[in-house]
UniProtKB/TrEMBL annotation, chain A:
It comes from the Archaea. It holds the Pfam family TusA. The lineage of its organism: Archaea, Thermoproteota, Thermoprotei, Thermofilales, Thermofilaceae. This is SirA family protein. Residues 4-72 form the UPF0033 domain. Belongs to the sulfur carrier protein TusA family.
Length: 77, 135
């Protein structure tokens, strides 16, 4: 299954979620999207996006200043 | 989650266009439909000959700091946010027919981001179940 990396470091709200949405549009069920972001609102924002779109958040971690979200695409119709 | 956002864009100062862009793009990212009704002093910014954005006088002293900050974080313009929102989501921009008539604007004068010139009745019916935001 392909892994898509989205580098949203330095982007401000709603930039990282917009970048994730762009990647999600071209993704298929089973794909993994890894988003790296530094926006301080990214953590609650990505959780809200997951809840709304019904995809799966595999991992959410902080690596220094960078928040990394690992998402499994499961809700594409 | 709301069924949709009905944003009435009335104000003509640059600061008010920031939430327009952010809310519209966020809604599009979440799959929430957005209908924007452009009226009042916001209307000239949706024409092909857009005026220079201006800030409200009472916050003039804050503008340089804000502009510098927005530049530093490379925040996209409200226009680019709206454009992208239209690409990824169900977003439509309507110009109020009353104000279009008052300003002598025809469809040809409007920016391509505008979908149509409509009346308030159409807008109210189309957004009957949406949450309304007045900017």
């Amino acid at each position: 299954m392909p892994e898509i990396t989205v580098d949203a470091r330095g982007m401000a709200c709603p930039g990282p979620i917009s970048a994730l949405t762009r990647a999600y549009r071209n993704a298929q069920n089973g794909d993994i999207i890894v988003v790296m972001a530094t926006d301080p609102g990214f953590e609650p924002d990505v959780k809200a996006w997951i809840e709304r779109t019904k995809n799966e958040l595999l991992e959410l971690k902080k690596e220094g200043e960078v928040i990394v979200a690992r998402i499994k695409v499961v809700a594409k119709k | 989650m709301t069924k949709g956002l009905a944003i009435i864009m009335f104000s003509g100062t640059a600061d008010k266009f920031i939430p327009l862009g952010v809310l519209t793009q966020t809604a599009a990212n979440l799959g929430v439909p957005v209908r924007i009704f452009v009226t009042g002093f916001a209307t000239p910014y949706f024409t092909k000959n857009k005026p220079q954005p201006r800030f409200p006088k009472e916050f003039e002293d804050m503008v340089p700091h804000l502009m510098k900050g927005l530049e530093k974080i490379k925040a996209p313009s409200w226009y680019d946010m709206l454009k992208e929102a239209k690409e990824v989501g169900d977003v439509k921009v309507y110009v109020c027919s009353l104000i279009a008539e008052a300003l002598g604007l025809k469809k040809d004068h409007l920016d391509p981001i505008v979908d149509d010139i409509v009346g308030a009745t159409f807008f109210m019916k189309e957004t009957a179940e949406y949450e309304v935001i007045f900017i």
